[in-house]
Amino acid sequence: MDHCATCVPLMAIFLCFISQAVNIVAAGESLKRNGEALIGGLVSVHQKRSIAGDECKIPDFQGILTVEAILFAIEEINSKRQIDLKVKLGYDIRDTCPEPYEAAKALVMNTPKEEFLAAVVGNLPQEQLEYHHVLLLLLSSWTPHMSCIPSTYRVKKKPDLISRAEFIFHAVSRDTTNLMAIAYLAASYNWTYVAVVYDDSGEGRHRARLFQQEASKKFVCVARNYVLPANSSETQIQKFIAALKAARNFSVIVMLTSKSLFKGIFDEASKQKINDLTWIVSDDSWDNKVTFFKNNTAAHGTFRVGTSAPIVKFKEFLYQLCNNPQRNKWIMEMVSSKSSVSSPKDKQPTLSASVTSIQPSIAINFSSGSNVTTNAAPSDTASVTPISSTATTVTISTPQCSDPPSNVNQTKLRQIVETLVSMADSATCTIDSIFAVAHALAQKEKCTENCPQNHEFYTYIQKVDFKSLSGHNISFNGQRNLDETEYKIWNLPKNSFSLSAKGQSELKLSEVGSWKQSGNGAPEMTLRSKKIHWNAKNDQIPKSICHEPCSPGSYKALKKNATEAECCWHCLKCRKNTVSTVKDSLTCITCPDGWAPRPGQDSCIKQVEDYAYWSDGGSLVMLFIMVAGVCFSVYVAVVLFKNRDTPVMRRSKNAMLVMLPLVIILFLVPIPLLHKPSDSSCEGYRAFFTWAFCFPLTALIAKSIYVDSRFYDSDGQIKESWRSCMCTPRVVVVMVTTLVHVIVIIVVAVVFPNEILRFPTDDPFTIYIECSIHTGFGFLIIIFYLMFIATVYSIFSSSEEISPENDMEVRWTSLCMFFWYAICFIYVVIGHGVYGKGKVWGLAFVDFLFAVDILACIYLPKWYVIVFQPEKNQADVSPWSMYVKTQEKAFLRVTNEDSPMMEKHGTTREPTKTKDCGNGDKSESQELINNTESVSVTDV
């Protein structure tokens, strides 16, 4: 839908242009060569004498160099030495002076149908209205535009279709990455407080904003912003330099002005002896025409961050102009013996003593859309000095025009060639752009299925990926900028110079590093610090900081003083219990658990952990109780096991021998509690506590009267409904209840996980640690669960009939449950009311109370009878007692029949009369009955 939405206004604009085609007037001159595919050129070959005038007489050497770059690139491509392209490339180059719009219309409308206009090269700054219309025309005709403008500054205009266009490609590094590289350079030398100077044009302010953003990412503070008019006078520059001499705490300044201010700023800085500043100049600000002499102390140590991609073949191609200037009609116009483009007032230019222009008499536009020129053509007497802009620049000697045409001015031709060669590096983008179009055409030739149409040719350009003649990798990202960017970093040392033609010592740039970014990866910067010469005393790296580095134990905080820059800082001491371990820390951090800040708060020291050690007095007491309880429990278990067949054990219901080993284990529950607190020991204690104290209650529930009456008959036999089950009902009850215990243990551990609590002590380097379960809600649930299980047992045993045989056992068990509730209450009180080691020892003692409660109320009464009252542990085996018991069992089975000894159920038995045998005494049987009735059965 977006594609269609864009097509509708484009077609409307294009139809409007066609309807006006009949009104096309004679545009600027053109240079054309036919081909199956055309490279269009919209180049400013000339400049107007005045802004209001239309006369184009002043040659623009940047435009002439662009024309030569187009001719060179197409010749290389057609020679098939670099790329195998089937079609033959042609060109149609139009001079955009005086009317860029008319030149663009002539280019688009006059292209024959059999010739495919693949792309248009040339700088078309869209912030200028006339060039904005040109871009709209190219957009409406779906013609890709290869731009070499590094600036990302854009003025919003209506209709604003350019921001949505997919046809503008930039084969040059943009200013965003250039400013990013400068910020990286400043950060690498810890220049965290720098100044910025820029001009008040829209583009200058745009660059300043971009640098502010990139600098903040690298924690580089912009101390001062100096703004100069775009056409600053000498007086305005003097005031700016004088302001730099005032009190300041920065020693590095970034230059983001236009090229026209570059020379004047350094001239004035040298006059006013500004020798303690280090300048970093952006690629858009550095003027290749300017050469610095050794006596210009302000320029010593200056950095340049920019691109440099010399193409040796192109320079050789430019030298061929000496013998073949006819290939470029505009050069022929300049060197023709009949023409005169010089200005008398510019024949003897005045040069500065410290900085001189290489071509003061040649009109050159270097500013990509700005009209900064030196309004003069080459004169016969002007001296020309070859540029030496990089450490790797090929030394250019004066070419010998051995066989020039007879109708040319050889001196002018020589000067023009020298000037173009000195500017050759700035044409690399144009050459790379044309090669990108050629590679796109090669892809188009190879495409066989679902191939884009001619109006979608930009999709081929989007996919190119090749290595150019300059050695750069050319590919485009989603924003149609270069996917890989590389900048060279040069330094201007005072001891590296060469002699000029006038015998003066010219400073030479020395390459000291590079900055590279590929795609979305992290930028890489390499610096050779040993090759850098600093503009400071003793050749030391200058400091440019707002404040001295903050020492460990403090952090950088922004000043609130309005007189300082917003990002200027001062050092504040770290807050209590926090540290900073490095210089210039932005924040203070808290020490990890178990560590504490040193007195200087510059590092953390490991704290000593205090807890209830085994060697503490309270722990030793608990160990003694534990050993005593285990030993006594073992003794009781042995006694009861040996007397398991005695009446007191046979009549017992709750004192099960199978529980005796568990009772011994109950005294071992405090072992994890007395261990060093850790996640394993704390969770282990909670699980061990829950299982150990719930299992005795589980066994009592399985032996309760509720289970007996529900699953067993009066003879103690399992009811018919359960006889098919493999397990007995009591075993099933134990298994199900135990499973519930396990589920409760797991759920509580997941919902309320343990943490190691750390409490400060009087010693700052000592902390007391304990398990959070001793205080938190996670253990209260376990205590409530124990009380709930005890309540369930009490309910299940409430219907128990008390008989002489079980009277004392029921009472002791009830007393056990009462103590159980009381001990649970004591556990909660100690857990939430006692602190420190006393809590651990108190909880361990309560654990012993649970074990003692089970042992004392369930087993010790049996042990006491066996050991201290053995006479009560004798079985009643008299004949009459056995007979009575047999009759009682028979009575239960046969309730409707009369028993010879018992009354019939529901009737009153009359006294039995015995016959007197004549001896006057009672019978022997009657005496036995009377004796039996008088016997009292005692049960423990």
TrEMBL record:
<keyword id="KW-0472">Membrane</keyword>
<feature type="transmembrane region" description="Helical">
    <location>
        <begin position="654"/>
        <end position="675"/>
    </location>
</feature>
<feature type="transmembrane region" description="Helical">
    <location>
        <begin position="841"/>
        <end position="860"/>
    </location>
</feature>
<feature type="transmembrane region" description="Helical">
    <location>
        <begin position="687"/>
        <end position="706"/>
    </location>
</feature>
<feature type="transmembrane region" description="Helical">
    <location>
        <begin position="727"/>
        <end position="752"/>
    </location>
</feature>
<keyword id="KW-1003">Cell membrane</keyword>
<keyword id="KW-1133">Transmembrane helix</keyword>
<feature type="region of interest" description="Disordered">
    <location>
        <begin position="901"/>
        <end position="940"/>
    </location>
</feature>
<dbReference type="InterPro" id="IPR009030">
    <property type="entry name" value="Growth_fac_rcpt_cys_sf"/>
</dbReference>
<keyword id="KW-0297">G-protein coupled receptor</keyword>
<dbReference type="InterPro" id="IPR000337">
    <property type="entry name" value="GPCR_3"/>
</dbReference>
<feature type="compositionally biased region" description="Polar residues">
    <location>
        <begin position="926"/>
        <end position="940"/>
    </location>
</feature>
<dbReference type="GO" id="GO:0005886">
    <property type="term" value="C:plasma membrane"/>
</dbReference>
<dbReference type="Pfam" id="PF01094">
    <property type="entry name" value="ANF_receptor"/>
</dbReference>
<keyword id="KW-0812">Transmembrane</keyword>
<dbReference type="InterPro" id="IPR017978">
    <property type="entry name" value="GPCR_3_C"/>
</dbReference>
<dbReference type="Pfam" id="PF07562">
    <property type="entry name" value="NCD3G"/>
</dbReference>
<dbReference type="Pfam" id="PF00003">
    <property type="entry name" value="7tm_3"/>
</dbReference>
<dbReference type="InterPro" id="IPR028082">
    <property type="entry name" value="Peripla_BP_I"/>
</dbReference>
<dbReference type="InterPro" id="IPR050726">
    <property type="entry name" value="mGluR"/>
</dbReference>
<feature type="domain" description="G-protein coupled receptors family 3 profile">
    <location>
        <begin position="618"/>
        <end position="873"/>
    </location>
</feature>
<feature type="compositionally biased region" description="Basic and acidic residues">
    <location>
        <begin position="901"/>
        <end position="925"/>
    </location>
</feature>
<dbReference type="GO" id="GO:0004930">
    <property type="term" value="F:G protein-coupled receptor activity"/>
</dbReference>
<feature type="signal peptide">
    <location>
        <begin position="1"/>
        <end position="21"/>
    </location>
</feature>
<dbReference type="InterPro" id="IPR011500">
    <property type="entry name" value="GPCR_3_9-Cys_dom"/>
</dbReference>
<feature type="transmembrane region" description="Helical">
    <location>
        <begin position="772"/>
        <end position="796"/>
    </location>
</feature>
<dbReference type="InterPro" id="IPR038550">
    <property type="entry name" value="GPCR_3_9-Cys_sf"/>
</dbReference>
<keyword id="KW-0807">Transducer</keyword>
<keyword id="KW-0732">Signal</keyword>
<keyword id="KW-0675">Receptor</keyword>
<feature type="transmembrane region" description="Helical">
    <location>
        <begin position="817"/>
        <end position="835"/>
    </location>
</feature>
<protein>
    <submittedName>
        <fullName>Metabotropic glutamate receptor</fullName>
    </submittedName>
</protein>
<feature type="transmembrane region" description="Helical">
    <location>
        <begin position="620"/>
        <end position="642"/>
    </location>
</feature>
<keyword id="KW-0325">Glycoprotein</keyword>
<dbReference type="InterPro" id="IPR001828">
    <property type="entry name" value="ANF_lig-bd_rcpt"/>
</dbReference>
